[in-house]
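REQUEST ID: PR-0412
SUBMITTED BY: lab tech R.K.
PRIORITY: routine
TASK: structure prediction, single protein chain
INPUT:
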Amino acid sequence: MPADSIRIKRALISVSDKSGLAALGKKLVAAGVEIISSGGTAKALAEHGIPVIPIEQVTGSPECFGGRVKTLSYQVAGALLFRRDNAEDAQQAEELNIKPIDLLVCNLYPFEAVAKKNPAWEELIENIDIGGPTLIRSAAKNHAAVAVVTDPAQYGMIDVETTLATREQLALAAFRHTARYDGLIAAKFEEKFNTEERTIVLSPQGAKLLRYGENPHQKSWVYTDPFHPGIASTEPLQGKALSYNNLLDADAAWRACGDAASCATETFPAAVSVIKHLTPCGIALAKTPLKALELGWAGDPVSAFGSILCFNTEVGEEIAAWLKDKFVEVILAPSFSAAALEAFAKKKNLRLLNLPSFTGAYDAPMVKSISGGFVVQQEDTGADAAFDAVTSAKFPANDSLARFGVMACKHLKSNAIGLFAAHDDGYSMIGAGMGNPNRLVSIKQAVEKAHENGYSDLSAAVLVSDAFFPFPDNIDIAKASGIRAIVQPGGSVKDQDVIDAANDAGIAMVFTGRRHFRH
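STATUS: complete
OUTPUT:
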């Protein structure tokens, strides 16, 4: 059984982050603790009049290879790892003249901080710590007899008499520390060598506790990717902190708006997404941000209440004025004008996020938890390369509306159907059906929503499906609704039956060759 309390008589200190180092050293020396140290740490302690034993006096070997080897040694490892309550270990330690080290204070080369600066590969390599993780893991493994400190914030936990409960807490933090450190190194190597599989670092050290989860009785955290800033690490310009649901919806809005913006033209440069419960209830391209907002909001004005908005352009005073009597939770944009910020400041609960438009440039793994593990996939990015006419009736020569519809529809929940229309000053989604167990229900819902929004004539609209039509009955509903143009991936065993039905109905149809399911 490990002793509940140990007395620290000998400590090894080797740190990169020297915050609080002098105060800790003086505290230990005042308590009669013998300090062993190496390199820059020994020098920093000496500058404050703190006596140290150079590490080479313990290892019997000098530092070498430009500091690559300092603490790696049989003597140091033995001093940390031998079991104090094991008679055989204790005898061997005495025979080998290995004196116990009771406290290890070690933090690692600043790999994360250096990596964020995008240095030369050689510099990044030199910031991979080798001896530090070995020391930390050794001390944490033998926490029954050794205390291990990996963060200056933990210095206050160390007393000359250190309890088992404290040592256990410090050991857990140590293993988390080295696990995250190794994970970040692996992630950078994966980027360098362009591997398909990616290491995913989910360490509490990179996590922040949120107010609550999907519901108030659930706890939740947000884990940040230190190398690829995004929604998770963005702090609101105003308003309270983002909740679990806010973060999910904000991310959905950011991605949907970015995909819509990828279809922008000189005529229609402004994109807006209006998101509710991870799903676009409105999405538009237009001449101006205000017009895009008007078109997007009109896609489902009722659902837009309490929504999250994302713009691909600066949000100005005219947007703030239009939203004056409307309730939205969060607005994302690359920037906000001073006048807009002044106007929005009157809405104390409104959160504003300053974030560049999503481009899909970083191919981040998409992670979902399942019982017993996780499923991970690449993100569904990019526009469809194919756009092949398969019917006698020809698709409109200007297919930019249809391509916008595909990029918007892929953000709807499967089975997804979106109806899209062109206006004098933009494109927008005018109706949608989604999240249904069959596509027929989704088509009916999309048509009903379009009618509700005032579009009784759908002959100029484009219907977009996120996956193939399994039967011609989908065409029958489209025909009865007056729809004249359809975009779908194709790929059904009954594709020819569907094409024949479209020809009989005089409907123009194209196949993209790519499905966009979103579960």
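NOTES: The chain is about 35% helix and 20% strand.
REVIEWED BY: pending
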